[in-house]
Amino acid sequence: MSFAANNPDQPRPLRVALAGIGVVGGGVIRLLEANRDLITRRAGRPVEIVALNARDRNKDRGIDLSAYNWVDDMGALAQSDDVDVIVEMIGGADGPALTLARQALGAGKALVTANKAMIAHHGLDLARIAEEKDTPLKYEAAVAGGIPVIKAIREGASANEIARVYGILNGTCNYILTLMEREGAGYDEALAAAQAEGYAEADPTFDVEGIDAAHKLSILASLCFGTKLDINAVSTSGIRNLIADDIREAEALGHRVRLIGMAERDAERGLYQRVQPCLVPADHPLAYVPGALNAVVAEGNFVGRLFFEGAGAGAGPTASAIVADIIDIARDEYGPAFAMPVEALDQAPIADAGARIGKHYVRLVVEDRIGVLAEIATTMRDAGVSIESFIQRGNGSNNGVVIVLVTHEGPADAIQNAAASLGSSDFSVAPPMVMPILAL
Ligand SMILES: NC(=O)c1ccc[n+]([C@@H]2O[C@H](COP(=O)([O-])OP(=O)(O)OC[C@H]3O[C@@H](n4cnc5c(N)ncnc54)[C@H](OP(=O)(O)O)[C@@H]3O)[C@@H](O)[C@H]2O)c1
């Protein structure tokens, strides 16, 4: 099958096939069309779309695709001698995206993908195939959308030992949290607004439960620490149980609530990877990241603290990351997918996230009756949790009294278990919320 014509007067074009023409795929076509000349100069040769594939050929995508060659059989893209790069923009950890990725790399094609779920679950296997075939596997768009953080860590900071990487890795959650902050909205109201604005899916589970952020964190951890990517080692909790009082109380304590993905490598404790809502000091740059933006902080032993901020999603920013990968391939600039060969990545022991010591914010909503405060104090004492401050706010939300405790430093599990036990008592009227108070 031949998709492209040869022109002997031009440097050989890089021939690109696009699989998945949704939000991201449409953005890539628009970007390659709009910046064609500049991209040719930067890439050193033209980047040519030689084939398109998606599910429904007849769908109106709001772009004129008549100039492009539509291929119904995705597998044909991987087999064609006229395709150099396959750009996977279908989505899903497994299924057609993974089949295509394996076929493409197996056939020696370069693969560019925006698919964090697939990289988080199968990145190592795909990287092995890419190495065997000496072909590029690039995934800049899979982490923090338009922010060039993969390139920055993989290349710009590659001389550093990185002990910690953390950040706001999910724009939907950050949009919801900043709406709660600004409007005093409850979680359900803020989620509905995010859905109406197109920032949250009809089924927001992947975002609000922290799963999407976990995918991205596991990829960053592997890159930063030189460890084998392990999505199953990320402990995750989401933002569903937050109430408007949590945002207000955090503010009163000089903090803001953010869903933070954090990974640390420690010689003694091993590899810690956790996504959870946290109290971030109001003067930390992460506290100022508004709306659907993402931000990543990486701490290198020579460079110090690096901070990256930008759009974590959307057609334009995601296309920007994908086309940057394509330009690298056109220049023949690529290396191992995780900054070192798969065999050089090591297997760090998994740190017990529950043993992590820190101060915590604990919020309960309880019935306003005699004996409740004594019971809270007893449960905390029995769990070995020492309380630094205690706030009770009259009639709070959910028809109960809002109680906020700030603990002294203690192991996360003990504090979580004590809160869970209080949450299951007959005086509790809403699920408790426990958040670490970050000292960054
Ligand atoms: N959206 C963002 O802002 C963003 C940001 C960063 C990364 N990503 C990642 O980018 C990828 C694509 O996201 P998206 O938002 O562009 O998704 P999307 O709008 O739902 O588009 C998915 C595309 O894949 C096609 N597709 C789905 N199943 C297929 C199948 N079985 N065979 C062939 N084509 C199939 C669809 O075809 P039809 O159009 O014909 O139905 C559609 O064109 C995902 O991995 C996502 O995580 C997205």
Please tell me the overall pLDDT. Answer: 95
Describe the global form: elongated
| Unreliable segments of 5+ consecutive residues | none
Helix content: 25-40%
Radius of gyration, CA atoms, in whole angstroms: 24 Å
Largest sheet: 6 strands, mixed
What structural class is derived from the secondary structure elements? alpha/beta
- How much of the polypeptide forms β-strand, as a percent range? 15-25%
How many runs of DSSP E, i.e. beta strands? Answer: 17
Individual helix count: 14
Give the N-terminus to C-terminus distance in angstroms: 56 Å
Distinct compounds present: NADP nicotinamide-adenine-dinucleotide phosphate
Strands across the major sheet, in which order?
7-9-8-6-10-11
Which short descriptors sum up this protein?
six-stranded mixed beta sheet; 440 residues; elongated; alpha/beta; five-stranded parallel beta sheet; binds NADP nicotinamide-adenine-dinucleotide phosphate; 14 helices
Give an overview of the whole structure.
The chain is 35% helix and 24% strand. The mean pLDDT is 95. By secondary structure, it is α/β, with parallel strands linked by helices. It has 14 helices and 17 strands. The protein has helices spanning 23-34, 36-43, 74-79, 95-106, 116-133, 149-156, 171-183, 187-196, 205-208, 211-225, 244-252, 315-330, 372-382, 412-423, and strands at 14-19, 47-53, 85-88, 110-113, 137-138, 162-168, 235-236, 255-266, 270-281, 293-300, 304-311, 357-358, 360-366, 387-393, 401-407, 410-411, 428-436. The strands form four sheets. It has a six-stranded mixed beta sheet. The protein has a five-stranded parallel beta sheet with strand order 2-1-3-4-5, sandwiched between helices. Strand 8 and strand 9 (270-281) form a beta hairpin. The relative contact order is 0.13. Residues 20-25, 53-56, 59, 74, 89-91, 96, 114-116, 141, 145, 313-314, 318 line the site of NADP nicotinamide-adenine-dinucleotide phosphate. NADP nicotinamide-adenine-dinucleotide phosphate binds at residues 20-25, 53-56, 59, 74, 89-91, 96, 114-116, 141, 145, 313-314, 318.
